[in-house]
Amino acid sequence: MGALQAALPREHYVDTRAYEVEREQVLARSWTCAGRLTELGLRVPGRLAVVDVLGESVLLTVDKAGRLHGHYNVCRHRGAQVVPVDSGTAHEPCRASALRCPYHSWTYDLDGSLRYAPHTEDVDDFDAAGFGLHKVAVDIWGGFVWVNLSPKPALSLADELGPVPDRVRRYPLDDLVVGRRMVYDVAANWKVVAENYNECYHCGPVHPELVRLVPAFGRGGADLDWDGGVAHREGAWTFTFSGTSLRACFPGLDVDEQVRHKGELVYPNLLLSLSAEHVAAFRLEPLAVDRTRIVCDVLFAADEVAMETFDPADAADFWDLVNRQDWAVCESVQRGMSSRAYRQGWYAPMEDLSLDIRRWLLPRLEGAR
Q: Is the pTM of this model over 0.85?
């Protein structure tokens, strides 16, 4: 029958100091999904994008040879932002041949090396090679750009992804494009959101529309076959209001993937819900101990999006409904956890295998100590 298992203690969700330790010792040393390669404009040489990763402004560039680079958005001279970005504002991806700091015109090549520093010609011990931008590690998988704030991560992206790429290998993630983007500001710790995504014990009471589409979700999430995929109701085969779509299935899927639903949580911040003709990709951006920005991209085949008749509403509106149900209950959990009465939660036996945030986070915290 199994027994109740202890969840993470209260401080992991509500204590600011615990959040700061987690961010610096674990999240900043992990591979964070920073966005779609195409949406950031980084598929061709001579491009610049600026992204926020755990509160750090990061420059992503593609040099003339097509190599992707990542650097902190901090000039080596006096610390000004090389590309000024106000808090809460976005910098649109653009073409670039060099990076020039607007403060004193120190200029960097797209690989981060210092090209020119005005009025340093007479400085005897000035070595331009020692003043390149501070690096961050960058890599690509699944059409996503990944950033590790450590310039030399302990794990490669491939090692951190583990078996995920093989499990989703038949889905054309590299080539999908955004059909609709939805952005949410959720008043909950990012782990509350991740844990909620990773179980369906809550689906019956919280998601009646989803349960009508996938009846197995209404049985508490026990014995779901995530490897083979979870079956829809009879006659349904994708995550839309009707359970069907006029869009074609992705080519190359196996017979189960053509009619079933799969899901992946790629720690720490990418959630993938994979249907036969679209993928919902959720990127979690922790903003504070009790606040998470969530970017939900509903991805489709490029040739479908290019059609004049393309309309993502059947899938995107369904996801927006389910999302808002999830965020409301996550915010309720956060408020409850903030009560002096709350000390620690518990996982039912059916949650233990899927609610694995403990197994991901705690060894990393211990290793950092």
A: yes
